[in-house]
Amino acid sequence: MNTLNLISAAIIPIIIAFVFIYSIFKKCDPFEDFIKGAYEGLKSAIPILPSLIILMTAVGMFRESGALDLIINIISPFTNLIGIPKECSALALIRPLSGSGALSVFESILNDNSPDGFIGLVSSVMMGSTETTFYTMAIYFSATKVKKTGCTLPAALTADFTGFVISALAVRILFSI
Amino acid sequence: MKYLFAILFSISIISATSMGKIESISNAAISSCSDAVTLFITLLGIMCFWSGLMNIASKSGLTQKISNLFKPIIKFLFPDIKGDKKASEAISMNMTANLLGLGNAVTPLGIAAMNELDRLNGHSTEASVSMKMLTVLNTASIQLIPTTVIALRLAKGSQSPFSIMPAVWVTSFLSVCAGIAVIKAAHCKDTVKSTNKKKRTASL
Questions:
Q1: What is the pLDDT of residues B110-130, one digit of tens each?
Q2: Low-confidence residues of chain A, pLDDT below 70?
Q3: Spatial distance between the Cα atoms of A139 and B35, rounded to a whole number of angstroms
Q4: Domain end: A25, A45, A65, which one?
Q5: Of the partner residues A33, A125, A152, the one whose CB lies closest to the CB of residue B55
Q6: Which of B35, B160, B178 sits opposite A60 (nearest CB)?
């Protein structure tokens, strides 16, 4: 475990150092290139703020409204049928909406259940294999002028839903539970 | 996306009214706005830093080397960029960051790639197939080592925190495939339509 911790802690510093050293080695000016690139980054970050504000407000209100509990109560009979525990459905619902929300749901699942039990394993796999879909979409598209996103959201949600169903299946098969 | 926020807001208000939580969503509305700005400021630093680093790597030819490794995948997933050098480099860097699980670097590199695709798309208001593809790849990212999850499992007393890794690989691979399939299928219809149109106009 310590080795992995060390690797994951060291990877970013190593990448940074490597990029700078490689640039010197190739006789470029890393400082100047950095300044230019960082300024470009600054410019492309500005358009993100407005969509970030509306997204986080909508998601924040949604989380506080208790709508999630209502929806979970409605769908859990169906998700139980395909062998997914109620706790995991809650995680699957919050996961595309809010990264920090998902993390706190995940943490409370691990507090109430063994991390090595079925519920703990399924929720771990779900957490590890999906991303905060709406946040990613809002940020990526607000950086450009795109208004018509076409099939992006349906495709992303199909991917999320597949991940949600497969995670329970994968745990059953790979851990033979 | 057009209807998403209207739906989210109305669901929130209806369920908050029925559960007597109007006050808490009103507080949430105000605090979330400032949370968004806090998050943006964090993001701003990270964006500048990784864009700067990316520019060094691109000027020294390092990104070119990495993008060569990804060439076959990019050719399959992003056929309409027609091997554009800058765009494939940016996409490769975003994929590398995803695979290595460099959480903070993924977004800036993804946005850089998005801007390249926007340029190829002529800054149109309609997303190109490649833009859709890149976004879906990032909403269902493949991570080799899901560090956050493993660390949390260990902290909660798991006997084998790493045991989930094969299941995570299988699940994220299949979910990415499902996303790609939807886009490929939707795009496939477009090309059929346009070829049909061409045929019809030809026969007329």
A1: 999 999 999 898 888 888 899
A2: 1-2, 4-5
A3: 15
A4: A45
A5: A33
A6: B35
